Fold these 3 entries.
Entry 1:
Amino acid sequence: MYRTHSNGELRLANVGQEVTLAGWVQKSRDKGFMIWVDLRDRYGITQLIFDEDRTPKEMVEKAKTLGREFVIQVKGEVIERVSKNKNIPTGEVEILVKELTVLNASLIPPFTIEDETDGGDELRMKYRYLDIRRNPVKNNLIFRSKVAIETRKYLSDQDFIEVETPVLIKSTPEGARDFVVPSRMNEGQFYALPQSPQTFKQLLMVGGMDKYFQIVKCFRDEDLRADRQPEFTQIDCEMAFVEQEDILNTFEGLTRHLLKVVNGVEVAEFPRMTYDEAIKKYGNDKPDIRFGMEFGELNEVAQHKDFGVFNNAELVVGIAVPDGASYTRKEIDKLIEWVKRPQVGALGMVYVKCNEDGSFKSSVDKFYNEEDLAKWAEATGAIPGDLICVLSGVADKVRAQLSALRMELATRLGLRDPKVFAPLWVVDFPLLEWDEESKRYHAMHHPFTSPKPEDMSLLDTDPGKVRANAYDLVLNGNEIGGGSIRIHDKATQALMLGHLGFTPEQAKDQFGFLMNAFEYGAPPHGGIAFGLDRLVAILGGQETIRDFIAFPKNNSGRDVMIDAPSKIDDEQLKELNLKLDL
Amino acid sequence: MYRTHSNGELRLANVGQEVTLAGWVQKSRDKGFMIWVDLRDRYGITQLIFDEDRTPKEMVEKAKTLGREFVIQVKGEVIERVSKNKNIPTGEVEILVKELTVLNASLIPPFTIEDETDGGDELRMKYRYLDIRRNPVKNNLIFRSKVAIETRKYLSDQDFIEVETPVLIKSTPEGARDFVVPSRMNEGQFYALPQSPQTFKQLLMVGGMDKYFQIVKCFRDEDLRADRQPEFTQIDCEMAFVEQEDILNTFEGLTRHLLKVVNGVEVAEFPRMTYDEAIKKYGNDKPDIRFGMEFGELNEVAQHKDFGVFNNAELVVGIAVPDGASYTRKEIDKLIEWVKRPQVGALGMVYVKCNEDGSFKSSVDKFYNEEDLAKWAEATGAIPGDLICVLSGVADKVRAQLSALRMELATRLGLRDPKVFAPLWVVDFPLLEWDEESKRYHAMHHPFTSPKPEDMSLLDTDPGKVRANAYDLVLNGNEIGGGSIRIHDKATQALMLGHLGFTPEQAKDQFGFLMNAFEYGAPPHGGIAFGLDRLVAILGGQETIRDFIAFPKNNSGRDVMIDAPSKIDDEQLKELNLKLDL
């Protein structure tokens, strides 16, 4: 037995006991006649003391040779500390060491194993096993594990069955690019790695499993944007004999449970908002509603004056920035620069200062009088002391621009407290979205989402207007889950695939197995999938998902630590009947 | 809301309530004026009654059109049944239907959805979603889910953290063949799918996670033997600061917990046996110890007589078959045929009948007298009434043959009751095994297993004799888990890789990341991995793992239902810089 206790365990009540501890040398202080060592493991830190009077001489000598991150085992007596450390749970005791064994030495680590490390990102990734020793990363992994446990607990208690679905599946053309896996046993054929277990979970519903979930790895061979991994984890769920309302209630329950047990936060019933409303009010289908700053549309009150920019715009829209009237000219100029950055893309910004005395001062005073501007204030909800920021242009674009500005200002104003949680259901998503590049409609969610029955008639006449039984769960401005009520009959599924540009042959070839299944008594069903990586990061109050993943990949999809992907040898290629075509 | 209750829920106490149910038509009986329908869902069956006197006429008419597996919704009143069915929990009530809605029709299913189905294997696989509706498969999936939940619960309670390790990793040459995944972002390079998260869990130990587990999919691109899947699931575990004893205790605890909560069986402390002893006593490193029939070695008492076959054999070994003395000549001849089948491969079999009167009758009476045969009986533990079966030849082969015979006879004698559980630790496995084909030693477990310190000196002189700190957990003749104490220092790891035929360059190229990690304070550590598929099947009292997998693949690695793997298009190949070389 290497240890009798962990390093987070001993208290005053243990004084007098002989114990064996093991762990890493966090640091040591050598006062000549006395040496203190902080011994660390996952559970905490315990102070060791080597004392010339009370510790065998050779142990003291050996203690002097200990470097940071050496792995040691000590035997000794728990004694009360003279100067207590109130900051750690073991701070009232220390171990008077009688025996010291070095279990493994360590080179000097390339960065400090401290909460605030001196290691840069790349170095920390290369030595990820050292990075994981640091409390922030270690605690993130423990936190992630807890979220997964509590998710499983909640869903199991609700009669959900966790079923494993295959990882080696068939490639389908819809959605993002598939990773493919050549099959040695089936010449010239490939498996794909799943982007989600979508069709399998639907088959489980056809199979009568009634309530399914799985915490499951999924894969997407996309060019990686910042903080997006080629492999990611989903909480994947599906229920039979349900309407949208049943699903929203169930997964509102799950989210509320997680917020309660993981964050200790009680949240009221989640508000709901239609997609159209979210776009209109926040310019965004995943609005952060921790704060207001709702959009005020100004076409009525700002057009038909002499200001051509506005008159020619499809949409004039503004937000009120709390206490923004105090911004200096320079600060406002910087804000204008900010919205004109290519990442945002606005051509300019009009502003109105709402002075404390009720008067207004705007950048377009030439065109608008006080009465006009008072109407702007009313439309944006601005009160004296606020700054109204107004953008104009093509509706879609200007909404996205103003949304970016709204988020940026809220961040600057400290309105995006990661300890505050504001969940929101966004419902009634459009079924289809037009893709300029391919000149056809794509499924906004996926091809299995059902249209709202009352909108079915629009499918032929005005496809873009058809609403879907689809919903997203938004938390603090992030989409953390999305789902839909599915199509469960062959005819509707065939119709939908037709609208997505599939010929009947293609539809049969790709999704025939699912449509066949629908002919044998498929129940009404629907579901949702949560992105676990993002969910964990948000609940954990952090922006980046990478620090909640033990071994993440960098933006080229590379594991910098183990050097994957790598070349495989010619023999393997030959066995797979593949040739490289470089 | 599609239903107020499930079909397994209603009892006499609910009589008088108006309820809404939904589910599948299991069967219907049409008596003209009355129609009974068994309505099924995951939770059970509820009987519906359509009655000309009490049900609206058009509902009765509609009920007459219902076919098997139609999905329906009914509203009605819970009434007490006249003739009660004591076999099902809902058997005291039925629903007097007032409203009937057909939610989805069904074609006639290709096989019956009954516990005993008329569907053959292939058909059931092709329509797996229908097969899952059958109780045996459905209950297996629920059982599997329960084993996973209880595993997670037990390990979490013991402070294990579940950490997800990557699926897209680096290909390594040791072990079985890897599935590979071409990387579009890194030309000419490939990921591999993990055969186990071995190196990652060791890095987590170096990273101080202390206790890790994961229930995780692993992959092996092997030719598939019967009931072996290319993707399989492991309960993967690792602990730091442990000796073998700590690991055995921890995972004996897990197994005991599972047997208790999943099977309701209390098992005494698990016996332990060395690998050598298992081979000697049972001819097998995963002996089924639900029954005796231990091997008796007969070289001493059977050689040096006039029987040349035995005199020339490396090993003469027998087992006592309980009550086998009563076998007829014909039955014994059949047994001899059985051991001579190519799958077993014995050249013949000598037998001795131990008569009830204490006398013996053998097939080699010419060479051995009663006194000789009494010694055979003593060595094999045979008592009057038993049959002694004796094989001879090269030790390895003859042990395997006798082991096969032992298992076959035990099956025939009904000694392998799937409701009886006999776990066993097999310890002290050899570190290396000689491979004739490649003319070199291979790691019996894997290259990270540590040799026993006391055997280290044999590494150069007699490598085959070196024992490892390796152990298997055996349950009813199946290896359900295996693990080892790992090497945790660079020098020993390099030495081991050298013995496995790696040049220092190859060792560095393949496992440099791990050996580097060992230089930064790697703690002593070890672990174990359980094959979840096999474990679940054995706990579930069944032989085949396939029926515990929702969507298994056939022996060609194909998913017969969705037709995977399949061809990918030329554009995808081009993007991956691959050419097919058929």
Entry 2:
Amino acid sequence: MSAGINHYKTDLRELFFTLFEQFGFEQVAGQAPFEAWGPDEAKAVLQETYRFSKEVLGPLNSSADREGCRVENGTVLTPKGFKEAWKLLWEQGFKTVGVAADHGGQGSPMMLQVAVEEMLCGANAAFNMYPGLTFGAAELLSECGTADQKKKFVEKLLNGTWGGTMCLTEPHAGSDVGAAKTSARRNPDGTYNIRGTKIFISAGDHDLAENIIHLVLARVEGAAPGTKGLSLFIVPKLRVSADGSSGAANDVALGSIEHKMGINGSATCVINFGENDSCLGELVGGVEHIGMSQMFKMMNGARIAVGIQGLGLASAAYFNALEYAKDRKQGGHFTKWKDPTSPRVPIIQHPDVRRMLLEMKSHVEGIRALIVKLAMHTDKAKQLQGKDDDRAAYHRGQVEVLTPLVKAYGSDQAFRLCAQAIQVYGGAGFIKDYPVEQYCRDSKIFSIYEGTNHIQAMDLVGRKLGMAGGAHFQQFMEDVGGFVEANREHKTFGTEVKALAAAQEGLMSSAMVILGWSQDPAKVSLIPLSANRFLQMMSEVAVGWLLLDAAVLAEKSLEGLSATDPDRTFYEGKKWSALWYARNVLPNVEQAARMMVQEDASPMQIPDAAFAASL
Amino acid sequence: MSAGINHYKTDLRELFFTLFEQFGFEQVAGQAPFEAWGPDEAKAVLQETYRFSKEVLGPLNSSADREGCRVENGTVLTPKGFKEAWKLLWEQGFKTVGVAADHGGQGSPMMLQVAVEEMLCGANAAFNMYPGLTFGAAELLSECGTADQKKKFVEKLLNGTWGGTMCLTEPHAGSDVGAAKTSARRNPDGTYNIRGTKIFISAGDHDLAENIIHLVLARVEGAAPGTKGLSLFIVPKLRVSADGSSGAANDVALGSIEHKMGINGSATCVINFGENDSCLGELVGGVEHIGMSQMFKMMNGARIAVGIQGLGLASAAYFNALEYAKDRKQGGHFTKWKDPTSPRVPIIQHPDVRRMLLEMKSHVEGIRALIVKLAMHTDKAKQLQGKDDDRAAYHRGQVEVLTPLVKAYGSDQAFRLCAQAIQVYGGAGFIKDYPVEQYCRDSKIFSIYEGTNHIQAMDLVGRKLGMAGGAHFQQFMEDVGGFVEANREHKTFGTEVKALAAAQEGLMSSAMVILGWSQDPAKVSLIPLSANRFLQMMSEVAVGWLLLDAAVLAEKSLEGLSATDPDRTFYEGKKWSALWYARNVLPNVEQAARMMVQEDASPMQIPDAAFAASL
């Protein structure tokens, strides 16, 4: 048991590089609506968040995992320390850094908010579910709610007085949200009677806030089947009166909580609405049948947030593994491994350990760059809206195509990298005394919730590729192409930039292959069969590009530094991240493109009964 | 909680195919020393083992995970039900199927024993650690012990009266076994006083047997440093008198047990030997300083056993995921996904689910074939020894080269496939109500213990490739080549056989590349940097080959079957396993070969300090 010990660590220098050197925070900050923000303010927030993550959230991570949540008198009791952490988190404004001032936030660029979130998630992924869902509910209501709803709910959600949830999943409606059976019956006073059971509701009940505001997808009686017939309702656990105070119970009952592989500090609830037919809800925005599109406003943010969760844990796993590898002595140097009298060396000197660490480093930095880039596009779209609508549309388009990459690649790699961290530790990694086995367990859900990674892949291939006549994808490719053209003969990275160009060609040809399939009914099943592969290819091109972009910048910065400048090794590190990824990952994209043209449909051709003789 | 519910399932038809149709059990059985065995006897054992796995071991798997082990009065108490299971296991002879009759076993070919083990491990990996270690200790003593030691210990180990362990690891001697500090001081009567602490000792203490026989690596005072100075000792928990009865305590104290990510029913112990300087041990075989080579006799078997553990869990995960996918309805058919009124279909109809299932199926079947093949070589080596020594040497050589593949590829894929099973389940897979999250947690240790997978890779690249002047590897390649030549123009699988040929070429060229590096001191670090990649390449060639071999057999068998024969779909399934693997995995081998010649040494070139600015 390591209750009370903080394991969270990161490297602020790397966060600063990504925000300030690679993605030009200064170009975004300082102008409306981010006038109040400059690099100094941002650095102060990052330092403060790191302190909070190490001092408050980190020490609760393993203890909450061991203790888990429990149900008493129909309420979830969260693990020890969560209440205090919740209070401090909201008081100190970590969750509202990026919230506009008119909703009580500090109005920073999203670039800063994602870096803050990375630390909060990395320090305690389970805890951060509660404020995360609350934040999402507040965002949705501040965008889609009526004036009255905004007034009544948003402020209290954003100061932690109340918690929020999103209630989509039902026992027979998971990925298939449209199959939801929860019903809503209109009452004469404009409210609705809600009835149904929702499952897998994260933060569905807890003892952190005085009330919980559920956002519930339900079907108004007589509405169409499928997602089009769904409406979104505000269903508080305790009814909220006109003056905004919460009072009597609203027939919202906790069914049970799940026992899970990970994120044990986060309560995953079954919630029964309207067991006594007295559960009242109000329609979000006052409009029926648009629940799904309203929910999607929250869901896009939630998908990005899942990518950030992945990054947070993968990064924490990397830095812990690195520290362990520098500390732990085992075996002699590999050039002297036959000599038992040679001095024992820290395991970071063993080639395979270095290989694992560099693999982790490059992935973590590349995924971080991808996420900050996405945030930068969001910020610029906001800034340019109404000033330069074409540029704003370009930025919004990049957000569209990058979102499934961030969610799916970020989460798939997180789990893989956390498992790799266990391998760096050896047997110790499997033991609960060290933090990495928990990171691995916690991270497994990221590839599943907020739309499985296959749903992300289909979103990319089936929607985003063709969106705006293919313009978003094309612009992404042009951006990569611009970098390639500018750096093809780069003195240090020329070879690797050419590898990026080859990968990009593979990606382009695969996009064309998919386009061909979409026009041939006999081949249409090849699209879902290849979607995950395509998402990975595009993610690898994006990450390879951003790592090389960082390396080119790092090399320029090195030129201006004295031989003894402590930043030299940092910039050296950026170069090796890019080199490793370009040499060891980018070639897989071309290879995947070659596999694509095989048009292997074997999973569709094998008869169901042939999967096993006896099942 | 799913205590008491069995989740274990397999497909005996598939096991029968591998043993009887693909690897010619009949050619091995029926002749000395396996005279008593024929297919009928083997099938009866497999059926009986499956029954035992479902009825006795399976129902204890999740309950043992939840309950774990605990320490009371200095002794480990194992989870509920383990005592009864232990008793039945030995009584009914499941562990001694392959043990020679003169040691009280049934003397079956190893081919049968590995299939039996797969089921025992798949049903309850944690439980099977206890008899597994006991079996290993018995095997070692029956090979290396003096006549007296054999008499005193082997029988009681093999009937479950006593348990056994292997005690290698110490706090500062994990992968670096040679750094062990546990000491042995000669006593005038020929016994030794043992002193030291061993950690991560599986089954190091428990309540299943009346005594525990530890096999302890220790250094006799004055012996050389490193592995060469280690000797192996029999150190019983309770002293054993000349008549074979166990009596007084032997100063062997349980320090503590670990809390782990998985295999929670297996006690992982810290054991203190000689805290009061009264811990007596006797030298295995009566010879000092050969402890490491004696231990290796046990370790080779243990490494194969780990591969089997991986196979057991991956296979159980596959069949559970398959059953769930056939049962669980979610979403409409992908050709009608926009129509919410289309009937909901079992998720096995969704292309990406089929892709995951076929990926699991092909890997599980291919790894099973690899393991049974290794066992077949062991059996034939035993049979041919003294009759045809050249052929016997060939078979032993194949065991040498295949062992690291079975251990490392088997365990790496097991973890990956168990995680994939979670993905098939979606959110339910993350919940403890279903068995797959436990399979995933349990399987993570397999890539670490009994020599990390990098140690396996170095064993392959640094020892096995060059063993016997490279003959073993060359014979492996000739066997693959023979299959390729015979089937290059196969009417159904010709394209895929050519893919195998291309993969084999890639493997060959990489072996040559590695040979070159070994002769150039400036490039020697590329060997450990590439060893894992090479092991994976060779495993993929081996598995691709064996799957195609099975497919060719299946197609022949199909020719003789009537159109309504229920075996038709089974043989169809074998074909698709091979096709999928050949198209989606084999091309990666060529790609890996291309990466090899890049000679990327970036992990060695990055300075330690450049991994992070602030750590």
Entry 3:
Amino acid sequence: MAILNHGDTTAASGTSPAAAAVNVAPPMHSLVQPVLDADEFRRQGRLVVDFIADYYTRIDEYPVRPAVAPGFLARQLPEAAPARPEPGGDALAAALRDVRDLILPGVTHWQSPRHFAHFATTGSNVGALGEALAAGLNINPFTWAASPAATELEVVVTDWLGKALHLPERLLFSGGGGGTLLGTSCEAMLCTLVAARDRKLAEIGEERMGDLVVYCSDQTHFSFRKAARIAGIRRGNCREIPTSRESGFALQPRTLLAAVRADEAAGRVPMFLCATVGTTPTAAVDPLRELCAAVAGRGVWVHVDAAYAGAACVCPEFRGATAGAEAVDSFSTNPHKWLLANMDCCALWVRRPEALTAALGTDHDVILKDPSSERGGGVVDYKDWQVALSRRFRALKLWLVLRCHGVEGLRGLVRADARFEVPVPRQFALVCFRLRAAAAAAVGEKRGRDRDNDAEPNELNRRLLEAVNATGRAYMSSAVVGGIYVLRCAIGNSLTEERHVREAWRVVQEQATAVLAAAACTEERAVRSAR
Amino acid sequence: MAILNHGDTTAASGTSPAAAAVNVAPPMHSLVQPVLDADEFRRQGRLVVDFIADYYTRIDEYPVRPAVAPGFLARQLPEAAPARPEPGGDALAAALRDVRDLILPGVTHWQSPRHFAHFATTGSNVGALGEALAAGLNINPFTWAASPAATELEVVVTDWLGKALHLPERLLFSGGGGGTLLGTSCEAMLCTLVAARDRKLAEIGEERMGDLVVYCSDQTHFSFRKAARIAGIRRGNCREIPTSRESGFALQPRTLLAAVRADEAAGRVPMFLCATVGTTPTAAVDPLRELCAAVAGRGVWVHVDAAYAGAACVCPEFRGATAGAEAVDSFSTNPHKWLLANMDCCALWVRRPEALTAALGTDHDVILKDPSSERGGGVVDYKDWQVALSRRFRALKLWLVLRCHGVEGLRGLVRADARFEVPVPRQFALVCFRLRAAAAAAVGEKRGRDRDNDAEPNELNRRLLEAVNATGRAYMSSAVVGGIYVLRCAIGNSLTEERHVREAWRVVQEQATAVLAAAACTEERAVRSAR
């Protein structure tokens, strides 16, 4: 029975694929070397597990930021990939030696207990192994049918996490909303921006695209402005509302409302507000309830970027940070930042999933259509919640983390970080500090500079950060807020202990002494040479 | 020495963070249970490695597509995350038992040798372990400084891969272009679309956004239309140029040019062409050289989506598929599809990286600014090449794959797949087939249907696919091309042997018999009841 339809090009030999496969090369898994092989995986897997464990054992010995110059690695590697695995039979072991000898000395060690830059990416045994397990299963759950259990686990685990963070019920599947796991907060911003944009354009017409305006504060992560540009919002239509030190760099509802009204008066269309819980520069918290109230009734989509600080909401004492979240349209946080889920993992919840799928859905595609999706009835096809079609099984590691540590375990983790108190307005586990203006001015005065000029202390603090980081004993980052350059010490790595914070502080003190002395010395030389 | 600047809120106690940390909870890594611990990682890592190896051993025993109903998993899991890890001391082992008993029976087994749907995601030992290793290191190389070796390895390995695929030199760093590793082809499309859009708008003015037109064929992956929508291209300005069976469903340069000219005549602005090497429905190949020539001199960005078939270019005999790529602006392929790199890994090369970074760059951000980037001079900051800020260390697994298999090993892999010849116009390792129109018509005739009506055979083939997939012994997908519904059998999983293809064919034959018999029976009943 020849049921193959050859179209208009029917060949004489109506054989089957199987018949045609006869008399050809051996099966691919026996070519060259095993590609996917259980026994070999067991052996190679142990090599890699031991390699990672050895790395954790030694991680504190590495300079946290490597002292390498651009091009250092490229120079040590051949110009083309090898034609064949190197002889000797164990290519992986040889490659791991190169990882140890060539690559590790050149990476910045994000899991180092001395890494206080940016925000931590808290790793955990279970997070790393959850990622490994997902890589081993190697499935692509873009629709429910493409892997039912993976999709359903994501539905379950985003609800679990939402409940653990005390999010409003309406953002969870159990309350008519729903969550998904993306790679980063930037993706969450882009997806919700596009959903809001298309909802608004459906109302006012596509030709008014150029009138849409989005709002954030001058403290909002730059990813938002980038996402707005990607979504085609005019460069001039992204309002960065100024904040001030007086209000702790939080977005003020009154200032926001004034900007919204000005845009409306000019015929433009307010469309989206990105509020932040835990800004990147100083972990400031925008007042959600008041901001939502300010734009209520205007059809403005309110998204909350809680990339870093959302995790803190596992602790009841931090719940105030998300007070008023009942009124927001979407909320995202990164379990890879402070909830042990290893890179990458961003949880996004939306109040109306249909707004997301209306903008990002691709139901017309027959290749992916399957009876379960057509039947509807509660089946989630996550491809319609994100930019990409393909996706990893991220729910697995988050589920493992929640299972193996429990919500109480995560509370302990957050509280352990948050105990690092300092006598400055500190938010969560981010400490911002700088050399006093007075100390810098003592240097600047000799040159007769204006004491109010911030340039000099900013420059000194910039030098201080570079000096601290050059020691390799601590790695911090910086921010400029209200024109003031601050060093950012973000505490939160899984391996960080009290002694690492103490030592980091010693490093800061030593380097501050050196930087101030060097500056004074330069001044004296300048004074001498001017004589 | 108190160098902390307390701003205007200087507290009485000028103590350091370290001093403040005294008298508080024990270090976080000793809380509840080890979070990141080398010895425990060694033990837990072995559990996971053995779990994956056991899975590979048993994978052939699972129905490839599970017979589960929506909601099956959610019903079996608690409504909230556990407060504490379950007692007994080994939460991970308990969780792995649940993965085995609850989750694996409900996943679609993408690594099964019986998975012929969509395109394969070829997994390998080294690909999975490379992903595991990256998860263990858990670094975030968004700038060169944020992890120099990770960035440099990505520069090296994208050049290596480009050379292995015989890509034009001008797309590689060594030729003035450059590559990056993203998650998916959808991201590659979106990033290049935004780069092309902003380049064009800089020329003609932002207010002409609504005039921009993008081009693809009716065979182009739906991700392109989605990416264009995300980028703010008007829904009506995405031209899907029709293709036909006569030209093998390839995009015809003449038809494209006619569409471009029509848009120009109407005052619109042609901006982007997405050509495909290996379309999703039938693996058709668009003629790059002729398409580039057709739009030459018009400032149209030509992107090549070679998500699946790009890998075939490791074999010199398949190089024809990318002939003319010298003239394209960008090219992407997914090493996670056919080059053993496990989910997710998309390589994107661009001829002018500055066009990408002009659109996606965020140089103004002081937090990420560091002296190496400011110095310029060959430092790549990959955050400016993609949507997101954060990113995984994907270069590591691709480097391991290239190291451990070698380019010859990958050639062997591609040839092993491509040997599955069938007597239809087959491209690469994708076989499209269907029940003959005649067989369907034999059923339809009794009802007096028009023999030229395609609906009846399409419906029968749809039933055939559902019947094949319901057996759990093979999993295929479908496409509609030129109004004709075809079953797609994509051969390429690492574990697939000849016997799996033979058996899949037996399953198709059995189910075709059953579907035709059932249809005939229904007809007879209809005829009888009409009497």
